[in-house]
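Review form for a predicted model. The reviewer records the input and the model, then writes brief findings.
Reviewer: anonymous (R2)
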Amino acid sequence: MVDIHRTHYSNQLSDNLVGQQVRVAGWVEDIRDIGKLAFVVLRDVTGACQLVVTGESLPVAVQTPRQSAVVVSGTVQKSKARDFPYEVKVTEFSILAKAANQLPIDPTGRVESASDKRLDARALDLRNPRVAAIFRLRSAGLEVIRDTLRKENFSEVNTPKIIGSASEGGANLFGFDYFKRKAYLAQSPQLYKEQLTLGFDRVFEIGPYFRAENSHTVRHLTEFISVDVEAAFTDYTDIIDLVEKLVGNVIGEFRDKRKADVELAGLESDLSFTKIDRLTYEQCLDELSKEGEKLEFGDDLSDAALRRLGEIHRGFYFIMDWPLKLKPFYIHEKEDDPRLSKSFDLQYGYLELVSGGRRLHDSDRLKSRLVKQGLNPASFSDHLKAFDWGMPPHSGMGLGFDRLMMVLTGAQNIRDVVLYPRDTERLTP
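Model under review:
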């Protein structure tokens, strides 16, 4: 029986192991047969190492299909190869699972494949070191966000993704039959996280959400990962400070502690970070007017207008104090100018990454706002009753994590930073 356990990963081979027996495991990337011996490149999740195969193991090794899973025993020795300071002289070569001779894509990346083909074979695509590096960075980014929020006294929560009423402000929701009743997939945890500030004070959730938008763009998905935050006894400027800290910490992690993956991924984006510009909506109108873009107060900002702003304010920038009529019913107005809202968006060029603001916490004012926006307060009765239990003032935000990763990796398509993307056409794998 073959022992499937490894003793070391490729990146652990070192001077200290020279002359010692090790077991390494991974997949065969290359084979160079030169007669009485063969050089095999074995890759695992940490990198690659060279194997030197002779004797009884030689016929097995040279006939192994590339990308097959193997486990190998041997002695570590110094190597003369340019790419490998150490190698393993093989004493036992065991094939654990043979790969097909013809694979749907080349996971080494030497032969480029179309995006759809790569997505169809995503598990195999992850054997490409560049692709794997992107998703290791994604994992590191989520870890940093969690750690930052915990240090700020936030508790992680989980809210339902199956909801009983399409009452999240009129966005397009996916509806389906739920035991002879109508149900929907949640497009945000907004109402739940507000309610949870009643007892938890500060909450965050990182999870999948769903939006039934028939959009065919490089930045839209029907299923996406959102980082949602809600905090009692805070104003919207406190949440802006928090967003700046979150983004800065993720960038710092990539730049300072994940250099190898940044290099492998071939990141084209700028990983320097300075304080993010904070513009009011009315400042944006003034700047756009100078650029020849004429907008009236209350107009939303088009992609073209946001691209122009992105040229003026390179990198990330906040837009604050939007007109109240452009924001959802739960957003608080500014006391000194009720035309405006205590709200903000974080932008990167035309791309919206975060939307947030101060929330209304007065039940009567919430009901009035619902009516003004053509919504029925009775549809929100379960939500509104929590506001009669001593709801504290609170503010929050939602961050589109997939879009943030798109920006930080320089990806041109959001599907390149999502393992199994879902859009209007893709439902598999």
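Findings: Residues 114 and 329 are 43 Å apart (CA to CA).
Further findings: Residues 129-417 form a domain with the BirA Bifunctional Protein; domain 2 fold (CATH 3.30.930.10).
Recommendation: see findings above.
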